[in-house]
Amino acid sequence: MLKKNQLLVEDIQKRAYNLLVDLTNYNENDKGYGLTLDHNMKPNVASIAATGFVLSGYIIGVKYGYISYDKAKKIVTKTLETLANNVGHYKGMFLHFVDIHTAERFKKNEYSTIDTLLCIKGVMSVEMFFDDEKITSLSRKIIDRIDWNHFVHTKDGKKMFYMAYNPDRDGDYAAGKSGFIFQWHMLAEQLLMYVIAAGSGQLNKKLALQLYEGFERVEGSYQGHKYFHSPGNTLFVYQYPLCWFDGKNYIDKDGFSWFENTKKATLGHRAWNLRNMHKFKTFSRYTFGLTASSTPTGYGVFHCIPSDSGTYLTDGTVQPNAMVGALVTNPKYALEAIRYMKSIDHVYTEYGFVDGYNFEKTQPWYSNRYITIDKGLELLMCNHYLSKDVVDAFMRHSYVQKGMEVLEWKKI
Predict the structure, then answer these.
(1) Span 220-412: which CATH code?
(2) Which residue, 42, 217, 221, 318, shows the most beta carbons closer than 10 Å to its own?
(3) pTM of the model
(4) Which among 5, 17, 7, 95 has a CA at the least distance from the CA of 376?
(5) Number of H helices, E strands in the chain
(6) Domain limits of the chain?
């Protein structure tokens, strides 16, 4: 059974890798070389976060023989040149979306801290894996120009990072006012921002700890599964850090494990599904997890109870990335779900699982949109489950090691 599980997960990993590289620009005459599309239905818009996932994917490609070491190193080098020299940034924080050919800003989208974080985790991982002087130089140029102090905000007496910046009053998320946008006051997917910022050497220890301790820890439970939850309790926010972070083996200075928190959140989501599956035709006793994906009416971010609103949100769409994303924390239930979903016609494709499927109406619906960050989550969680190639590279980075030291995180 162990061998069968490994082969099953390897196949998902390979198909996810193929999707990401197929949606990446390898035209050497373009300034956007190496950038990856946000999704396959928008052919010119690259996502800076997706580019971080595909950079990490080249490590997997080399380790599993999908691509040669030399070819991957060349692609990585040129991609880092694109990020270092062509993609717009504000105080080191990248634009969320850019034109995949020109690397120019897409419309009036924001400079995003979280999408930059997802990108630089890929940058840091390839720096350590390839151990090449030019790659290291480019990586440090990209990471070291981030002015972490510039994004520090004090709210209600607590230190927090701003979430984004937009110079245009009518730009994305600006709400009629140019400048900084919102702040990371809540538990979400930004966890490793505190580690990398602390490891950069820019923040003093007191400030680094204040930032990590500055976001809310709201505890809730569902059927006995107690955990700190995000405001909406969307499953991917717990999973994203574990694409790179060896959470199972580390606790913070108070002995808290974010790995265990994600495990409990997943069990809570599964318990909610079992109790409510009769309300939705698409649900089953195997599938679980309310998260973000394509839906019959567009992009949807679904959430579970407990939540700040006290309610859940779903239209019945099953989102496979939620279950593939649980391979590391809850492998038994994830594998059961994966086998079940593979048995459904039209759900498993040349690129692995569809982004979502829904049988609530008379006509079954299967997403034909592949969102690259959803597939990136699948790719990296498969690898974390199988061999931890990306995790091992990321964890070796001096900024990660130093950051955990500053925050007093401990290996267990």
Answers:
(1) 1.50.10.140
(2) 318
(3) 0.97
(4) 17
(5) 14, 19
(6) 18-146, 147-216, 220-412
